[in-house]
């Protein structure tokens, strides 16, 4: 099985520990991971703002970088969503379609593909809340959606429940958007910050000390809001917890 | 028209969280609209959020409606099938709209109704005016209708000296305050009770310090009821127009459509051409979905059917296009015509709940507004598709399954390709496209994580200052090295697996970037 690691541009620059934890976790699980060093970005910033023509070359580069792998694993729901749904500015060759169909988000890879039953090295003796991003819930369907009539489920919580010592709390509005939204956070700062503050308050009111998420962009925003509010919450990527980080 | 009913359903759906002893917080006003200049949603949203009592009350009221909607949904086993069915009925009707409009018109005429056709808002207003002139009518009572808002009907009538009295309580409050509705179903939901007391004191002469619900309701009723009883014309909208029998159905929680239609001798209904459904049997599907999606109540208090004039009276239907035919021909956006104006997408939208409906500066606000408004004025509403996080909740609650968030995304494409965003944004996107497609240029741009922090958000739009430095949000702390640098330094973790410092010591962080 040839597996490539895709590290989102924001994680590469601002949250390297996410990439490192993902790499180490996959190795612990016996996967020999390639990290294509020429990777840049999935084109989401331009696509999200509507500039598809300007995203074309970046998408072509993405396809060139990641073609030929059985799985492209990325620790970011929004990037995976972007590649699957919106890598459409570039020509839809067999390679493009292959890349779009073979990208998987880390939780999906662990839960659906590898079907990992145990993380014997992982222990997290803290009270946590899970931050599910909109991309993970409503697009990758990693967790059930409160708007739809469906049975409750959560792939990330199913994985986290295998971690020793962890105590998981539920927020009041578990699938309310945190207000990051890529360009939204820049173009609509007032609403973005208010949503972030409300979300942080929801997490904080559970008594949790740590917020765990599969989306570092949401938690980067939430962390910024929490620090301004003076809330001493810690934010970790799920890869870190599953890889044995003890918080 | 009972205020109590209205308040139980909407305005007072959640308790107001304002302690009485607090000084009154002035009600924030909506977006500043200047002709066709692009409406600045963020500017108005910032003012709404800066009024914490209003913002908090608004968010909790509408979230309460959303939760009641969820409870109703869980009570209907076939909910998802019902949505799918409603969506298909609408698709079918819109695909055969011409035929159904003909059938509806023939049936309505056979019932003794006069049917008129209006190409646009101006024609709609002129038709209504001319019907009134023919009858020498001077005053009009009106049940709430978004279509007449769309047509600027109230302003037109004021210009020709005809008095219009709104019979829906929320809409009447908005009329007295000279504001448009902020929400499709709950027009005054952005106001606190104390705001209403101020409006009534100013316009009806009530006690400004008494915001007690029953007092306000009774005062309003006493002041407005005589105007209703003396009106020459009654006007309603139509929630549904049924092709097979030529009837319309109007849903209200206050019974005010019945007043408007039955008290004066002349009833005029303004009907968007997309309101047609084929059969009476189809109506049940939509009635089951409408109020459950809107307010989380199983049904609206009054679902009134109007089929023909009562003896001695007249009934007119004004069928309004106003851009609908053009939208119907649009491959990407036609399905927005399925909308039954339930407002579920507004109630669930985290942006709408925080910013208030008037911040959109348009007749239709919230998620549905983001996709309807640009079909009416591309330039004026060019920024609205960006007033969304694309979280997708709107699509999930839509009872007729409009892919709202996907259409918002598609509108951004249109705006970008038609050069609606500012020149600086376009230049920055082009630059981002070049840098992100070239590994060497990319590595040079993000060499050192602190520089990346400055560069990355700017891929989104050109902003002269650090975008994180908005009140309420700290700049993220930059780590000592990027993942890429770590990978190179440690040969992918094979040499040294020690984690790089997370920037807790502040190294590499520039607080005053820009």
Structure description:
- Chain B: Keywords: 4Fe-4S, Electron transport, Iron, Iron-sulfur, Metal-binding, Repeat, Transport.
- Chain B: InterPro entries: 4Fe4S_Fe-S-bd (IPR017896), 4Fe4S_Fe_S_CS (IPR017900), FTHF_cligase-like_sf (IPR024185), Helical_ferredxn (IPR009051), LUD_dom (IPR003741), LutB/LldF (IPR004452), LutB_C (IPR024569), NagB/RpiA_transferase-like (IPR037171).
- Chain B: It comes from Naumannella halotolerans.
- The complex is a heterodimer of chains A (247) and B (514).
- With 247 residues, chain A is α/β, with parallel strands linked by helices.
- Chain A folds into 2 domains: 112 residues, no CATH class; 117 residues.
- Helix content of chain A is 49%, strand content 11%.
- A 4-stranded parallel sheet of chain A has the order 2-1-3-4, sandwiched between helices. In chain A, strands 6-5-7-8 form a 4-stranded parallel sheet.
- In chain A, helix 12 links the parallel strand 7 and strand 8.
- In chain A, helix 11 packs across helix 12.
- The two termini of chain A are 32 Å apart.
- Chain B has 3 domains: 289 residues, 3-Layer(aba) Sandwich (Rossmann fold); 77 residues, no CATH class; 70 residues, no CATH class.
- In chain B, the strands form 2 sheets. Chain B has a 6-stranded parallel sheet, sandwiched between helices.
- With 514 residues, chain B is an alpha/beta fold.
- In chain B, helix 4 crosses helix 13, helix 10 packs across helix 11 and helix 17 runs parallel beside helix 19.
- The interface between A and B is large, with 77 and 90 residues.
Sheet with the most strands: spatial strand order of chain B: 1-10-7-4-2-3
Q: Give the C-level CATH assignment of the largest domain in chain B.
A: Alpha Beta
- By CATH, the topology of the largest domain in chain B is Rossmann fold
Coarse structural class of chain B: alpha/beta
User: What is the distance, rounded to the nearest whole angstrom, between the alpha carbons of the first and last residues of chain B?
Assistant: 57 Å
Mean pLDDT of chain A: 96
Q: Which class do the helix and strand fractions of chain A yield?
A: alpha/beta
- CATH homologous superfamily annotation of the largest domain in chain B: NagB/RpiA/CoA transferase-like
- Share of β-strand residues of chain A: 5-15%
Distance between the termini of chain A: 32 Å
Shape by Cα distribution of chain B: globular
Helix content estimate of chain A: 40-55%
Number of helices of chain A: 13
Number of beta-strand segments of chain A = 8
- Greatest chain-chain contact: A-B, 77 and 90 residues
């Amino acid at each position: 099985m040839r597996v490539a690691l895709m590290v989102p541009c924001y994680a590469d620059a601002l949250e390297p520990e996410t990439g490192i934890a993902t790499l180490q976790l996959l190795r612990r699980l016996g996967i020999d991971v390639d990290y294509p060093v020429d990777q840049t970005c999935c084109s989401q910033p331009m696509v999200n703002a509507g500039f598809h023509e300007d995203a074309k070359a970046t998408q072509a580069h993405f396809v060139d970088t990641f073609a030929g792998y059985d799985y492209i694993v990325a620790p970011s729901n929004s990037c995976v969503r972007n590649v699957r749904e919106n890598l459409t500015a570039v020509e839809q060759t067999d390679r493009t379609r292959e890349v779009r169909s073979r990208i998987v988000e880390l939780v999906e890879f662990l839960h659906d593909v590898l079907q990992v039953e145990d993380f014997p090295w992982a222990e997290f003796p803290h009270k946590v809340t899970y931050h599910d991003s909109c991309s993970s819930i409503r697009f990758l369907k990693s967790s059930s959606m409160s708007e739809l009539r469906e049975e409750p489920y959560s792939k990330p919580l199913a994985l986290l429940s295998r971690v020793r010592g962890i105590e998981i709390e539920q927020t009041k509005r578990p699938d309310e958007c945190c207000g990051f939204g890529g360009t939204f956070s820049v173009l609509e700062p007032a609403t973005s910050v208010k949503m972030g503050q409300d979300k942080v308050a929801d997490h904080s009111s559970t008594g949790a000390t740590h917020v765990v998420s599969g989306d570092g962009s949401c938690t980067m925003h939430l962390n910024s809001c929490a620090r301004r509010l003076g809330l001493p919450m810690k934010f970790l990527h799920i890869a870190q917890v599953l890889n044995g980080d003890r918080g | 028209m009972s205020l109590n009913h209205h308040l139980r359903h909407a305005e007072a759906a959640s308790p107001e969280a304002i302690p009485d002893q607090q000084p009154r917080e002035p009600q924030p006003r909506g977006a500043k609209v200047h002709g066709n200049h692009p409406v600045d949603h963020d500017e108005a949203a910032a003012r709404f959020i800066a009024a914490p009592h209003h913002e908090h009350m608004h968010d909790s009221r509408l979230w309460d409606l959303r939760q009641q909607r969820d409870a109703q949904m869980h009570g209907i086993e076939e909910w998802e099938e019902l949505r799918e069915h409603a969506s298909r009925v609408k698709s079918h009707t819109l695909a055969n709209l011409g035929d159904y409009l003909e059938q509806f018109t023939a049936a309505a005429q056979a019932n003794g109704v006069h049917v008129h056709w209006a190409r646009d808002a101006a024609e709609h207003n002129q038709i209504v005016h001319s019907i009134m002139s023919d009858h020498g009518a001077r005053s009009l009572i009106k049940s709430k209708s978004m279509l007449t808002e769309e047509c600027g009907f109230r302003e037109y009538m004021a210009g020709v000296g005809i008095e219009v009295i709104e019979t829906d309580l929320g809409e009447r409050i908005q009329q007295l305050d000279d504001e448009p509705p902020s929400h499709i179903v709950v027009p005054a939901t952005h106001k606190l009770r104390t705001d209403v007391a101020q409006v009534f004191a100013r316009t009806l002469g009530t006690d400004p310090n008494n915001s007690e619900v029953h007092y306000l309701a009774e005062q309003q009723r006493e002041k407005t009821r005589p105007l209703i009883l003396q009106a020459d014309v009654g006007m309603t909208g139509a929630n549904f127009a049924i092709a097979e029998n030529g009837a319309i159905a109007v849903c209200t929680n206050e019974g005010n459509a019945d007043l408007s239609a039955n008290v004066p001798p002349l009833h005029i209904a303004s009907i968007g051409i997309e309101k047609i459904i084929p059969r009476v049997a189809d109506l049940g599907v939509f009635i089951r979905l409408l109020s459950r999606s809107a307010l989380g109540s199983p049904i609206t208090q009054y679902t009134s059917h109007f089929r023909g004039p009562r003896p001695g009276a007249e009934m007119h239907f004004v069928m309004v296009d106003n851009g609908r035919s053009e939208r119907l021909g649009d491959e990407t956006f036609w399905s927005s015509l399925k909308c039954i104006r339930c407002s579920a997408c507004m109630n669930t939208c985290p942006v709408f709940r925080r910013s208030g409906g008037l911040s959109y500066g348009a007749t239709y606000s919230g998620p549905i507004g983001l996709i309807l408004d640009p079909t009416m004025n591309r330039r004026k509403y060019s920024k609205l598709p960006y007033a969304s996080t694309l979280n997708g909740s709107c699509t999930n609650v839509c009872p007729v399954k409009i892919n709202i968030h996907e259409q918002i995304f598609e509108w951004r494409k249109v705006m970008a390709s038609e050069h609606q965003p500012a020149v600086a944004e376009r230049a920055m996107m082009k630059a981002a496209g070049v840098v992100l497609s070239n590994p060497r240029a990319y590595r040079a741009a993000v060499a050192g994580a602190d520089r990346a922090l400055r560069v990355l958000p700017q891929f989104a739009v050109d902003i002269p200052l650090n975008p994180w430095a908005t009140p309420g949000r700290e700049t993220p702390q930059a780590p000592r090295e990027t993942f890429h640098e770590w990978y190179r330094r440690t040969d992918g973790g094979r040499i040294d697996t020690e984690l790089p410092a997370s920037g807790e010591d502040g190294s590499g962080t520039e607080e005053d970037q820009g």
